Amino acid sequence: MPHWSSLIREVPDFPKPRIVFKDITPVLADARGLADAIDAMAAPWRDAVPDAFVGIESRGFIFAAALAQALGAGFVPVRKPGKLPARTIASDYALEYGSDRLEMHADALPAGARVVLVDDVLATGGTLRAALSLAQRQGATVVGATVLVELPALAGRERWDAGIPLHVALQG
Ligand code: AMP
């Protein structure tokens, strides 16, 4: 197990009863933990650096921006509704109760751009699939997705598009 994995703090019943929240802020606060976690997330993309890392609000921003800087790629944000100032496209996705929406600037990705999607935690996979749809609708080629922690019990991987590599730095 990497050293940084012991820094992930589990917070029971946050933000709702029965959810065990994976709090990655202690990893970010630790200089070696942060560097090693970014290294682990960057490793699969070093030999074929994408044009951009697409980070999902909000913790995905932290990792995607660090990966972009580390590998010499761009960073593109996928945001919650109403946050991006210019024209956007949107993708709705199901939550356990109800639905949610993510947006991306309509001109964020040139057609044919090679991108990697980034988030901190993969749970049911709905968030990552919504970001996939946004990038693909712009004509980008999604060459992969990378998350720090996968929660295998929630089976997000089984609902992921099998043709696109999904890299996880840690199974939790
Ligand atoms: P999902 O769409 O179900 O895969 O949920 C993934 C998104 O929700 C990510 O953006 C995570 O940051 C967040 N998330 C879901 N479950 C957890 C959890 N147990 N701990 C921390 N973040 C979570």
Beta content comes to 25-35%
SSE pattern, N- to C-terminal: EEHHEHEEEEHEE
Per the principal axes of the C-alpha atoms, what is the gross shape? globular
Parts with pLDDT < 50 across at least 5 consecutive residues: none
Strand arrangement within the widest β-sheet reads 4-3-7-8-9
- Count of helical stretches: 4
What would you report as the Rg, rounded to the nearest angstrom?
15 Å
How much helicity do the residues have?
10-25%
Number of strands: 9
SS-based class = alpha/beta
Bound molecules: adenosine monophosphate
Major sheet size, sense and barrel closure: 5 strands, parallel
Q: How widely separated are the two ends?
A: 11 Å
**Integer average pLDDT:** 96
Ordered list of secondary-structure elements with their pairings:
Elements (H helix, E strand, L loop, with lengths): L8 E4 L7 E4 L1 H5 L1 H12 L9 E5 L2 H13 L2 E5 L9 E7 L4 E7 L8 E9 L3 H12 L3 E10 L15 E6 L1
Parallel strand pairs: 3-4, 3-7, 7-8, 8-9
Antiparallel strand pairs: 1-2, 5-6
Bound molecules: adenosine monophosphate.
Key words describing this protein structure:
single chain; 172 residues; alpha/beta; 4 helices; 24% helix; binds adenosine monophosphate
